[in-house]
């Protein structure tokens, strides 16, 4: 039977869903989609002709009619209706106090989004769609699912935008949140919106402040005067992790390394005789900072969190996590645990005698101590001023200034040219008594180890490059085990056998010892002689936690006016709310903007009644995002951060999806805070996130570029001469074709093009707005396409042609089940499904699809799950009838990917409730067994083809099928079969009579 021409008597009509009195409206009854105009305004990328402001009513209607014709199914009616239904019925609400904890749980979470004014682009829904598919699957499999959403809304971007526009960051933040929420709802994500939180809400950051107080009580939060990463443009200091390639992670502004000084905040009532003068000093080439100079100066106060106290646990517990190995390796490298020794080198005076100053170096290779031919100090080393000679002081100061403008990454980059300056001083190598020069170089960091190294140029590539540039001696002290000389032009950094490593003066002799054994002997020797000790070191630095900005959590600490003594705010006074400020711009002095809120800053200690000052630094953006996953478990609790029973049930997060860029920021910080909370009994799991998945990036559409020479003629990309005058020109896709692995001009295939997809950005003009895509193709098409583009973890390029393909697939699903449109463009209210019993072939097809889709979703291979559904629909179009028992399970399979269409079809199939909690289909093994086999067919012992036969096929039936096969039959035509050799399910070998030789010659 042709499904497309069934009569209405064969249609099984179904009741409309109960939308609180709102009846279903067919497309003929509804007004044109209001969102079409918005899509048309920016829809050129989708092939839409843009309407001008003077378009007539008739032209607008023709546009709507044109779009209706292009729609594969009425998504514009279906999707808003079901989104309203889910919201009004709170379909995805996770029970709170009344939850059944006997059921298994599944906590799936997206990394906290920052709600920017730009809204979403099509790259954002990639991870969100993946988590939504998992959440929908697990609900249908009987799990209690926690799938929440909230906003990481404090931080620099909102404040910078507020400064630029003159609007308060609170207003812009709320507006951005509304926009993000609306966009996410339009995509049909099954979030429990009852649990929505924002880091800017006092009810939330009360507990962020509470965690800070717990850190303070345990000595894990402290104040210190340290060199900082100062960003003049942002007017604040940044943690090392927030500086990328010498610029701020947020905004890309230059960052310099400084000890920043500012005047102490004094009051005439405290010291009326102090003479206060105003002056300014030049901080860097293009930024001036004003300061108050008193009769003394002090470094800027910085709040720091002692994350290094948890370094070993952060490192060791990585082994138990189901995370990408690349992310775990990034964290291991950032923590950078190493074992070695601290060794003291005595500084010499001009007569070569030991001074009362020693430089302590940290080395992971004590076995190479005899090869140390110079020392290197970081430009910010505290002993520098005591070591530098008068003749070198000017050069050293100039070098320090240059080094201060580089980030740690720039300074330690292996590829960069080494720079340095001689200090004019010398130190004594304790192993052999030699006087070696002391250099200053920026490839040594003051924040790592002791800020000084013993340079062994024969066995370290950086030291080797430096020594070669400045003509410093190179001494080989380790040779490869098994032979080899120490005269190579390249350093040998591996372990081996020690040579040239003996000194009667010191009594140390490690010649002939393997490196590891020699290192142990050197450590024993330095400890015995008082020249050093064994040491475990880390690259990880304590977390710089204070920000000199307004839009952040206030730090709940007070300082007495008369003594400066600091003490925590009582927990009963939390939250300490952020005061309203009209002027929240950076002060330019290093003092935070909160210092302008004088009535808020000046307060009294509740216990002593003494005048006190509030802390005016705020917390960094990372504070609120460190623990939000816990608050989602119990978002309305005013008495505790999280209820213990709820935390024990929901912890840890089962699947956490987000970008790899957070590997050493958010993920490391969250693990640190979680471990502290574990130690104080707030949480029951050692780690917050059981499984982390990093989704890839969706790039802009592929752009094709061609080269032209100075005469304007095209030049193939593989023959461009960069020394000549060539320029690139963008080529439209319709003028391009594929040739092998390359792209060429259709009109001239000899011209090879450059095909490249770039990251979406406003500057490139390749950002695709999901609102436009949803208006043109529907949310289900967008969701399905983003999953179909390729593996979730891979980066891929957007292609509008691709989304048109999946949109057509959904149209095929719709027409298969609902039928073709009526003459007026509307559809019947029921479906084409029948109550016929499905055949064995149909059941086998269905259960293979069930097995494949379930397996692929659970393995986060979403794209191959879609392929399995496409195969099922292709097969279903060949069926004479459409049994309900085969179609209903398929609709359930489709629902995690395309929930709006699936809900609509489910109701049309006669169900009165949402399918969100319907049992997900399970594959029956009885229908998964292959009933056919591929049988090789041989002619006279040579395989000439294969045929597909049923299991248990007889020899006669197999031979008949082989005789009809196009490849095999040509060997049988006109020939006599002498015998057949048949092994059931294995092989068919046909032996033919030899041909008549004379006949063959004729």
What can you see in these coordinates?
- This protein has 1002 residues and is α+β, with helices and mostly antiparallel strands.
- It is built from 29 helices and 43 strands.
- The strands form 14 sheets. Strands 14, 15, 16, 17, 18, 19 and 24 form a seven-stranded mixed β-sheet that branches.
- Strand 30, helix 19 and strand 31 (692-694) form a beta-alpha-beta unit.
- Helix 3 crosses helix 26.
- The protein is globular and about 110 Å long.
- The relative contact order is 0.12.
- The model is unreliable at 1-57, 259-299 and 998-1002 (pLDDT under 50).
Summarize the structure.
The protein has 1002 residues and is an alpha+beta fold.
Q: Give the helix proportion (percent range).
A: 25-40%
Shape: globular
Based on secondary structure, the structural category is alpha+beta
Strands, count: 43
| Euclidean distance between termini CA atoms | 54 Å
- List the uncertain runs: 1-57, 259-299, 998-1002
The biggest sheet amounts to: 7 strands, mixed
Using only CA atoms, what is the Rg? Answer: 36 Å
Structure annotation, total helices: 29
Average predicted confidence as pLDDT: 84
**Approximately what portion of the residues adopt beta-strand conformation?**
15-25%
């Amino acid at each position: 039977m042709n499904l497309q021409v069934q009569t209405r008597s064969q249609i099984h009509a179904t009741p409309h869903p109960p939308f609180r009195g709102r009846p279903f409206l067919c497309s003929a009854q509804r007004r044109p989609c209001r969102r079409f105009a918005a899509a048309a305004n920016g829809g050129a990328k989708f092939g839409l002709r843009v309407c001008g402001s003077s378009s007539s009513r008739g032209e607008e209607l023709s546009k709507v009619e044109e779009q209706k014709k292009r729609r594969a199914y009425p998504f514009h009616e279906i999707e808003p209706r079901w989104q309203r239904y889910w919201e009004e019925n709170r379909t995805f609400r996770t029970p709170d106090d009344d939850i059944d904890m006997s059921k298994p749980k599944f906590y799936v979470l997206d990394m906290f989004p920052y709600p920017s004014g730009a809204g979403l682009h099509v790259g954002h829904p990639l991870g969100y769609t993946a988590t939504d598919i998992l959440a929908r699957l697990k609900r249908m499999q009987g799990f209690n699912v926690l799938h929440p959403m909230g906003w990481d809304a404090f931080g620099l971007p909102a404040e910078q935008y507020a400064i630029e526009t003159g609007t308060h960051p609170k207003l812009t933040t709320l507006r951005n949140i509304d926009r993000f929420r609306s966009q996410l709802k339009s995509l049909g994500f099954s979030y429990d919106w009852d649990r929505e939180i924002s880091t800017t809400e006092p009810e939330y950051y009360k507990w962020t402040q509470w965690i800070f107080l717990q850190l303070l009580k345990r000595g894990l939060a402290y104040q210190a005067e340290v060199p900082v990463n100062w960003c003049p443009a942002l007017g604040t200091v940044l943690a090392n992790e927030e500086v990328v390639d010498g610029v701020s992670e947020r905004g890309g502004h230059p960052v310099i390394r400084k000890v920043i000084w500012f005047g102490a905040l004094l009051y005439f009532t405290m010291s009326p005789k102090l003479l206060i003068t105003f002056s300014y000093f030049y901080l860097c080439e293009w930024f001036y900072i004003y300061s108050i100079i008193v009769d003394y100066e002090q470094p800027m106060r910085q709040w720091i969190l002692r994350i290094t106290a948890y370094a070993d646990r952060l490192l060791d517990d990585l082994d138990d996590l189901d995370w990408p190995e690349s992310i775990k390796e990034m964290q291991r490298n950032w923590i950078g645990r190493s074992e070695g020794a601290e060794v003291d080198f005595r500084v010499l005076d001009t007569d070569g005698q030991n001074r009362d100053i020693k430089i302590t170096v940290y080395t992971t290779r004590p076995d190479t101590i005899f090869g140390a031919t110079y020392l290197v100090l970081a430009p910010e080393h505290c002993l520098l001023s005591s070591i530098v000679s008068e003749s070198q002081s000017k050069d050293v100061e100039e070098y320090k200034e240059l080094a201060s403008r580089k980030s740690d990454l720039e300074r330690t980059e292996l590829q960069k040219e080494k720079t340095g300056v001689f200090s004019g001083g010398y130190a004594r190598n304790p192993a052999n008594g030699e006087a070696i020069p002391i250099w200053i170089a920026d490839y040594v960091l003051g924040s790592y180890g002791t800020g000084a190294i013993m340079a062994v140029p024969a066995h370290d590539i950086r030291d080797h490059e430096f020594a070669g540039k400045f003509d410093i001696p190179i001494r080989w002290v380790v040779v490869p085990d098994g032979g080899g000389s120490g005269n190579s032009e390249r350093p040998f950094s591996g372990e081996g056998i020690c040579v040239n490593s003996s000194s009667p003066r010191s009594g140390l002799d490690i010649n002939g010892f393997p490196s590891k054994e020699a290192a142990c002997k050197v450590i024993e020797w330095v400890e015995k002689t008082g020249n050093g000790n064994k040491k475990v070191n880390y690259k990880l630095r304590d977390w710089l936690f204070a920000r000199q900005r307004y839009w952040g959590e206030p730090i709940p600490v007070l300082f007495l006016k008369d003594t400066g003594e600091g003490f925590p705010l009582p927990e009963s006074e939390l939250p300490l709310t952020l005061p309203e400020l009209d002027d929240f711009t950076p002060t330019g002095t290093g003092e935070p903007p909160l210092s302008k809120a004088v009535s808020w800053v000046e307060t009294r200690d509740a216990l002593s009644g003494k005048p006190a000052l509030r802390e005016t630094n705020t917390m960094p953006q990372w504070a609120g995002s460190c623990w939000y996953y816990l608050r989602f478990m119990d978002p309305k609790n005013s008495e505790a951060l999280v209820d213990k029973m709820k935390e024990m049930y929901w912890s840890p997060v089962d699947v956490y999806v987000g970008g790899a860029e957070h590997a050493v920021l958010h993920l490391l910080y969250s693990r640190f805070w979680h471990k502290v909370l574990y130690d104080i009994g707030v949480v029951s799991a050692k780690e917050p996130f059981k499984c982390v998945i990093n989704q890839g990036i969706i790039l802009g559409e592929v752009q094709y570029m061609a080269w032209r020479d100075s005469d304007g003629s095209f030049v193939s990309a593989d023959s461009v001469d960069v020394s000549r005058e060539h320029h690139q020109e963008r080529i439209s896709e319709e003028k391009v074709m594929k040739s092998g692995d390359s792209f060429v001009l259709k009109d001239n295939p000899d011209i090879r093009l450059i095909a490249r997809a770039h990251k979406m950005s406003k500057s490139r003009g390749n950002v695709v707005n999901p609102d436009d895509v949803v208006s043109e193709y529907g949310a289900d098409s967008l969701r399905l396409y983003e999953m179909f583009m390729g593996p979730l973890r891979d980066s891929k390029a957007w292609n509008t042609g691709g989304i048109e393909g999946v949109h057509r697939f959904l149209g095929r699903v719709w027409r298969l089940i609902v039928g073709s449109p009526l003459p007026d463009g509307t559809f019947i209210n029921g479906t084409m499904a029948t109550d016929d019993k499905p055949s064995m072939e149909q059941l086998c097809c269905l259960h293979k699809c069930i097995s494949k889709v379930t397996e692929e979703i659970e393995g986060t291979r979403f794209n191959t799950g879609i392929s399995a559904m496409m195969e099922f629909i292709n097969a279903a179009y060949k069926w004479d009838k459409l049994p309900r028992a085969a179609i209903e399970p398929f609709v359930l399979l489709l629902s995690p990917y395309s929930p709006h269409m699936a809900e609509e079809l489910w109701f049309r199939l006669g169900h009165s409730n949402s399918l969100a909690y319907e049992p997900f289909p399970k594959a029956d093994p009885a229908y998964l067994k292959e009933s056919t086999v591929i049988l090789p067919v041989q002619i006279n012992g040579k395989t000439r083809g294969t045929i597909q036969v049923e299991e248990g096929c007889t020899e006669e039936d197999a031979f008949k099928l082989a005789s009809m096969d196009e490849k095999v039959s040509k060997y049988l035509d006109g020939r006599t079969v002498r015998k057949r050799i048949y092994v059931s399910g294995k092989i068919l070998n046909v032996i033919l009579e030899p041909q008549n030789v004379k006949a063959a010659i004729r």
